[in-house]
Design brief:
Elements lengths: L7 H9 L5 E2 L10 H5 L5 H6 L12 H8 L10 E5 H13 L5 E6 L4 H9 L2 E8 L5 E2 L1 H7 L4 E7 L11 H14 L2 E5 L23 E6 L11 E5 L2 H14 L5 H10 L5 H24 L5 E2 L8 E6 L5 H12 L1 E2 L1 E2 L8 E5 L4 H18 L5
Parallel strand pairs: 1-12, 3-4, 3-6, 6-7, 7-8
Antiparallel strand pairs: 2-9, 4-5, 8-9, 10-11, 11-14, 13-14
Length: about 375
């Protein structure tokens, strides 16, 4: 049996994120409070307090499933399974569709959960790359060359974590065509849809473009609600049952309280307010990061992210990303993510979708370490 592959990104964050003064490792916008979420919902607080804490619908409460389905063209509640975050959605999907020895092709860089789950499942994992010299566009020729009749699944992340790249319609169509050529399943992690930086047009889903798409969503990133731990799987109706059976083994169900709040978040009156709030944080924070990088001359460079509250920053310092972020954590009490956790060196992932009074002092501390590494003085 192969050695267990730990999820190094989440391991890093879970050890340190509650211990540092400044956490710039999170990939979503600044979280909203329950008070603010319910502030414009008539009777919202009373409804929350009147919730009976029994077992909920295991597949997700009906109101929530209906509101999730409304986000996708041609979907109904029967296409939806509510999970404990997109993390569970990814886990049960790989275990439903991939057997030991099966072949899966994974986009890299990426949130490496699917990659690690597949490794631990005993799958043969291949990687196709986003190319930095093409502004992080996917190498479709490489994908075409890697996919074989034995390929059971292609896994993508759109908008991408960590680069923020949004696939064009042409890129999406090409990926679908490659998957359909061998009748492979397409796993699409779409948790950053809605967190667009430069447009109010939401990133389209892969769901509905091909009959073998499994799409993941979550309230953690574009909605600022990571503490609810609510995600979902969108899949063909005849595949939801198999996912549901594995869901019962892993978590049984998401929290009844969390699902009630999630249904509020996706209601017609609240959903647009949360989208605007997230984009507001992203669009206010990005110029702060840009100005900070520019103040360091040629030390940092960046392909501007199309979406997400994170930047995948390239640095020009003589130090590996793991050592750089470790020193930053231990010496300056600031947490960012090393590029090594995404398979890309000389990069770090920095969150910027945060209030300025939190973001600016954190960047000041990163500056202190950069100056020390360059052998200079303030």
């Amino acid at each position: 049996m192969a050695a267990f592959q730990p999820f190094v990104l989440e391991q890093w964050m879970s050890i340190f994120e509650q211990k540092v003064d400044y956490n710039l490792s999170e990939s979503g916008a600044h979280p909203i409070s329950v008070r603010d979420l319910l502030s414009e919902v008539p009777g919202g607080v009373d409804s929350l307090l009147d919730t009976e804490l029994g077992y909920p619908h295991v597949e997700g409460i009906p109101a929530l499933r209906q509101r999730i389905a409304a986000l996708y063209n041609g979907a109904t509640a029967e296409n939806v399974l509510v999970t404990v975050g997109a993390a569970e959605a990814n886990y049960i999907t790989v275990h439903t569709f991939i057997e030991p020895g099966d072949e899966i092709v994974v986009m890299v860089p990426n949130y490496m959960q699917v990659w690690g789950i597949a490794k631990n499942r005993g799958a043969a994992v291949k990687e196709f790359h986003l190319r930095e010299d093409r502004d992080w566009a996917p190498d479709l020729d490489e994908l075409e060359s890697l996919v074989t009749p034995q390929t059971k699944m292609i896994a993508v992340c759109n908008p991408n974590n960590p680069t923020g790249h949004i696939l064009s319609e042409q890129e999406m169509d090409a990926i679908v065509a490659i998957a359909s050529r061998v009748e492979a399943w397409l796993l699409a992690d779409e948790v950053y849809s809605g967190a667009e930086r430069a447009t109010d047009v939401q990133t389209p889903s892969f769901f509905g473009r091909y009959d073998k798409v499994v799409a993941m969503g979550s309230l953690s990133k574009a909605y600022g609600l990571p503490g609810l731990r609510i995600g979902w799987v969108m899949a063909p109706k005849d595949q939801i049952r198999g996912l549901w059976r594995r869901h019962e083994y892993v978590t049984i169900s998401a929290s009844k309280l969390a699902m009630g709040l999630a249904a509020v978040a996706l209601s017609p009156d609240v959903h647009p307010r949360l989208m605007a709030r997230t984009r507001g944080y992203i669009r206010a924070g990005y110029p702060v990061l840009e100005e900070w990088m520019a103040s360091h001359g040629d030390t940092f460079s960046l392909t501007p992210p199309g979406a997400a509250a994170i930047a995948f920053v390239k640095y020009h310092l003589d130090i590996g990303s793991a050592e750089f972020t470790d020193r930053l954590c231990k010496e300056k009490s600031v947490l960012i993510v090393p590029g090594a956790h995404f398979g890309v060196e000389q990069h770090v992932r920095i969150s910027y979708g945060l209030p300025h009074d939190y973001l600016l002092p954190a960047l000041d501390r990163i500056h202190e370490l950069v100056v020390e590494l360059q052998g200079g003085a303030e």
